[in-house]
Amino acid sequence: MCLSIPGKVIEISKNRYIIKYPNEKRVVNLSIIDDLEIGDYVIVSNKIIITKIPEKDAKKFFELVGG
Amino acid sequence: MPEKKGQILPELYFFKYAFPCAFVILQRGNLSQEEYNNLNKKFLEGKSPSREILEKSFPVAFTRIKRLAEKMNKDMWDFEVIRRYWNKEHNRIINNGEGMYGKAPESFKDLCRINMAEVVERKGNMLIVGHDRKERIVFDVLVPDAKVGDKVKIHYAYAVEKVG
User: Which of B7, B57, B78, B94 could pair with B74 in a Cys bridge, judged by C-beta atoms 3.0 to 4.6 Å apart?
Assistant: First the structure.
């Protein structure tokens, strides 16, 4: 099963993103997506933001798995 | 096991497609950070862990591979079984909505699928690829010689192999 848990971008400073998950916050220093905004939902792989996920899909995911 | 000319070993073929999902298994707490780091090190070296480690790290995939191998009447480590798993079975499971895939949003399922894509631009060690009229950015670590116009298979944020 390779459905990844999305996180919400809650802070952006130069090359530093704070991502909020249901139970924790994580700092990520690299993104391959260059138009990120606070409030975006993202997938992080190997400490790198690899993609944005539509908000409605992220919310549906959490309804599905809880959290 | 001797390597056939032009064909990689089944362990490495499996691992190239499976590794992009390892972070999900880490997220879910089914791999420790140390286990993940060891997999990541092997991945970046272009090497495969042992069969034992692969089976322990990706148990869901191997449950399905065993089932497929029985249908094909072959050993689960037969190269054709592993190849068919990643080229057909894996997407079939997602498209059929087995398990959590049944209710998962499309954008999540699309990241999980093995998609055929075309390289449209290279940006350093990243490739911009197009598939199904969409664009995606992927790492070139497994296909460092990929160039614009090449067809590649993608899984999550990785171009896994060139095709054709």
Answer: B78
By C-alpha distance, the chain A residue nearest B128 is: A32
Edge-first strand listing for the sheet containing A25-28: A25-28, A16-20, A7-13, A41-45, A48-53, A30-31
Report yes or no: B101 at the A interface, CB cutoff 8 Å. yes
Strand partners, B129: B119, B136
Name chain B contacts of A3, Cβ cutoff 8 Å: 24, 100-101, 104, 108-109, 112
> What CATH number is associated with residue A48?
2.30.30.140
A51, B157: Cβ pair inside 8 Å? yes
Query: A47: domain range?
Result: 7-65
pTM, rounded to two decimals: 0.89
A11-63 per-position pLDDT tens digit: 999 889 999 998 889 999 989 888 899 999 999 988 889 999 999 999 988 88
Residue ranges and CATH numbers for the domains of chain B are 10-102 (no CATH), 114-163 (2.30.30.140)
Cβ pair A2:B28 closer than 8 A: no
